[in-house]
Specification:
Distance between the termini: 52 Å
CATH architecture: Orthogonal Bundle
Largest sheet: none
Mean pLDDT: 95
Strand content: under 5%
Oligomer: single chain
Low-confidence stretches: none
Structural class: mainly alpha
Order of helices and strands: HHHHHHHHHHHHH
Shape: globular
CATH topology: Farnesyl Diphosphate Synthase
Number of helices: 13
């Protein structure tokens, strides 16, 4: 059982999203004069462990529910493929997922002693939704919403709170474009899995509305996300430097065009899926970069 197999099971490339989002919440706090690199490191590790738990437990539940036996895997969707190939034992994968979940909560508990109880509350909400994502939330049309909330408002607010010890409305509002991007990341990745997900009793946006209408939802979410960034800046919610985030509209536009044109053609949809992931990662990264640049230069 090689390390390479375990890394594949973790779906490591997708883990880049977590430090990306935690850095954004931390940058918001830094712009207000609060920064502890030690607390940032702890928050990042804790959030990464919860993200690992999300990936691994989703893989496990999809396998035991039989979904992974029918998925058409792409480089960006369909799970890791490790369990259907028999490369790892399901029980070992489940154990890793639960251990990662409790590891993330343990760091949250430690941070709550250092900063305040809301760290653990936010972490517990994230843990609850990640554990119930595959067996419950995706069966009730809540999967895309849960992903957007976890990697948007919850993670940004948690990172901000770790630095400042304060719960405020502004970080929640500032996180909405990120949450919309992450919801879209999941949404387009669901297109190739419509038949397999339906067999497993899931109710996702592409299943309920159809792929064509789901592609329009994707477009609407991006339009809202990129309209919100300058709006939040004008409202004083975001620092002006965060306007760099609108540059993520370039890969987002490619994703939307591909989704609208090739919603029923998985092979030709793959470039759009790649662009969609780029857009979701670039929104928090570019906003963070802009905030930091503004703080250093001005």
């Amino acid at each position: 059982m090689s390390l390479k197999v375990w890394i594949a099971e973790l779906r490591a490339p997708f883990l880049l999203l977590t430090p990306d989002v935690v850095a954004f919440g931390t940058a918001l706090a830094w712009a207000e004069g609060s920064l502890s690199l030690g607390l940032f490191a702890l928050a990042t590790v804790g959030a990464l462990l919860l993200h690992v738990a999300t990936n691994v437990l989703n893989d496990y539940f999809d396998f035991v529910q039989g979904i992974d036996l029918y998925t058409k895997r792409t480089p960006f969707s369909g799970g890791s493929g490790i369990l259907p190939a028999g490369l790892l034992r399901p029980r070992a994968v489940y154990t890793l997922g639960v251990a990662s979940l409790f590891g993330g909560l343990a760091i949250g508990a430690y941070l709550s002693l250092l900063v305040g109880p809301w760290v653990l509350v936010i972490g517990a909400l994230g843990a609850l939704t990640l554990y119930t994502y595959s067996p419950f939330l995706t069966k009730h049309l809540l999967g895309e919403f849960a992903a957007g909330v976890n990697f948007g408002p919850l993670m940004v607010l948690g990172a901000y709170y770790v630095q400042t010890g304060e719960i405020k409305l502004n970080p929640l509002l500032a996180s909405v474009p990120i949450g919309l991007g992450v919801a879209n990341l999941l949404l387009l990745n669901e297109f190739p899995d419509v038949d397999a997900d339906a067999r497993g009793g899931r109710r996702t946006i592409p299943i309920v509305l159809g792929r064509r209408a789901a592609a329009r939802v994707l477009a609407a979410c991006y339009a809202l996300a990129f309209a919100l960034i300058p709006t939040l800046i004008l409202a004083g919610v975001l620092p002006a430097g965060a306007v760099l985030g609108v540059l993520a509209a370039l890969p987002a536009l490619k994703a939307v065009r591909g989704a609208l044109k090739y919603f029923d053609d998985v092979e030709r949809l793959i470039p759009a899926m790649a662009a969609n992931i780029q857009a979701a990662l670039m929104i928090p990264f570019l906003m963070t970069l802009g905030i930091v640049a503004q703080g250093i230069l001005f």
